[in-house]
Amino acid sequence: MDGVFFAVLLFLVHPAAAVSTDEPRNGACRDNREEFGFALIGHDYKSFHADNFGRCFFKCSIEEICQSITFLWNSKECKMKNETKRSRPADFVENSAATYMENSFRAKKGSKALVPGTSCKDILESGDAQGDGECWIDPTASGDPFRVYCDMVTDGGGWLLITQYIEGNPSLLVQLNSYRQILPKYTINEHYLLRSGFNQLKQDMGFSQIRFYCFKKSVGRVFHIMTSNDSKGNDVVKFFYNFQRFTSSLWFFLAPSR
């Protein structure tokens, strides 16, 4: 039987890679510098009193979760951040009594459960995307991240794989309402996300576009469309709210035929 599959991916409009291994730290030179007179507002996960900027940065450099620091000179306060100026540019502001610096030794966003993104698009916009592949996300900052497949290249990148079906590839049928349980199963065919799960995903991520990619092997034909990011496109997304289920699994959309 011809291999025909149906894949659906979501483009996340709010700010918001294969899983990487630990990065080498043996004598690597820092590729960033202190930025005097600037601060990243918010996104603190820890703060403490530090006698000097060096102590503040050293503490950050030994914690993979620490993405950057803002050191306040007047109060000698070290603010350790779980975001960077690239991931949250709107919160990067001038402050004559502060110094900002990114942690060169940090774990890249989405590369580990320790530092999940809120979505594929969030990881892409942070500058940490390493191409298509597996990433860690936690859309609601629940503290319970999970793995998903992200397309970081096609149509601007930032797409989350939610559905894929391969005809003639039988497997155990599973139907679930939880997108947290379905999305990590992208390597298994015939897993279905029910309507309430899709609606919850929409609520938690706020996506506004859907992409469809279909391939028929026997003729080498590709059918690839994307909904527009406007009222008409939103009507299409709303239509799928009424679908009873969505499949989730195998990522053959990266086959050489693409």
What does this structure look like?
The protein is α+β, with helices and mostly antiparallel strands. Strands 7-8-9-1-12-13 form a 6-stranded antiparallel β-sheet, with helices on one face. The longest helix has 11 residues. It comes from Porites evermanni.
Q: Could you give a quick summary of the protein structure above?
A:
This protein is 16% helix and 33% strand. The protein has 258 residues and is α+β, with helices and mostly antiparallel strands.
Name the structural class.
Answer: alpha+beta
Amino- and carboxy-terminal Cα gap = 20 Å
Helix content: 10-25%
Uncertain stretches: 1-6, 11-30, 247-258
Number of strands: 14
* Main sheet summary: 6 strands, antiparallel
Rg of Cα set: 21 Å
Order of helices and strands: EEEHEEEHEEEEHEHEEHE
* Percentage of residues in strands: 25-35%
Mean pLDDT: 79
Strand arrangement, major sheet: 7-8-9-1-12-13
Specify the number of helices: 5
How would the global form be characterised?
elongated
InterPro entries: Fibrinogen-like_C, Fibrinogen_a/b/g_C_1, Fibrinogen_a/b/g_C_dom, Pan_app
Protein name: Fibrinogen C-terminal domain-containing protein
Pfam families: Fibrinogen_C (PF00147), PAN_1 (PF00024)
Organism: Porites evermanni
